[in-house]
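tool_call predict_complex ligand=pyridoxal-5'-phosphate
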Amino acid sequence: MRRAMADAEVGDDVFGDDPTVNRLQDYAAELCGLETALWFPTGTQSNLAALMSHCGRGDEYLVGQEAHTYRFEAGGAAVLGSIQPQPLTNRADGTLDLAEVEAAIKPDDPHFARTRLFALENTISGRVLPPDYVTAALDLARRRALATHLDGARLFNAAAHLKAPVETLCRGFDSVSICLSKGLGAPAGTLLLGPREFIAEARRHRKILGGGLRQAGIFAAAGLYALEHHVARLVEDHANAERLAAGLAAAGFEISSAQTNMVFVRAPRGLAEHLAKNQIKILPGERLRLVTHLDVAADDIGRVLDVARTFLN
Ligand SMILES: Cc1ncc(COP(=O)(O)O)c(C=O)c1O
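tool_result ok
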């Protein structure tokens, strides 16, 4: 990947003439079955540009309480987009009750914000949205004239779990955001995909948000490398997560089971310190999120399990 980055042919992406960025965008659009794509430095910026392209000032979007755009992006939609979020409770599997979603759509009345958009996330905290649920959610949005956005930061993990082409998971959405960092291993980069006119609007918002980079081809080369070399191996991360979850559960830890690359563990007091003493660094907290990725080898899982077992003993 570093070699591909060093060798990348570059231009000025602010003018849309960086050949490597253009190649990545075209490749991703084809792969995902959407008309066109736009590279962003981060997923947060891609999501926010998408929300701002779908919604204007005083509009509203429907979203899960646990969704990244609502909970973990510092309220950007409200702060920078003047967009009102309408958060709804996620069920244990990450889905929303679609009757609740429909009931939350505001009538056309000057008392209310205008409900414009329904945003989903797949995977959501490592859980894959059931395809039937996604179909029903898209049907609801269409019937009620709402636009749809998919935060697919880890959509390739969902596709790997379902053994389905990623294109089928994008189908029917007006816009999709997919991260090239995280499990795919690029140092930066997210693609926002959608129709040409929508992406032209998103390009304006990317500029407003300070995301117009010049020789972005250096990053795009990493993104291309990630798509070409790091997608097929995601199943290894899933197998590692499954082994980690099974090993921790067998040792007596309370875990929520891994569908893709995440394991959540209720952490007894002192676990983080015990792991740290054994050169395993984690973000401390009551509920630990353990994520497998291309820099975590199968041997590492064995080591984490050994150290975690000694903690309980
Ligand atoms: C589901 C989801 N969406 C979006 C983002 C934002 O990505 P970034 O960290 O590149 O801004 C993340 C980051 O972890 C995420 O988990």
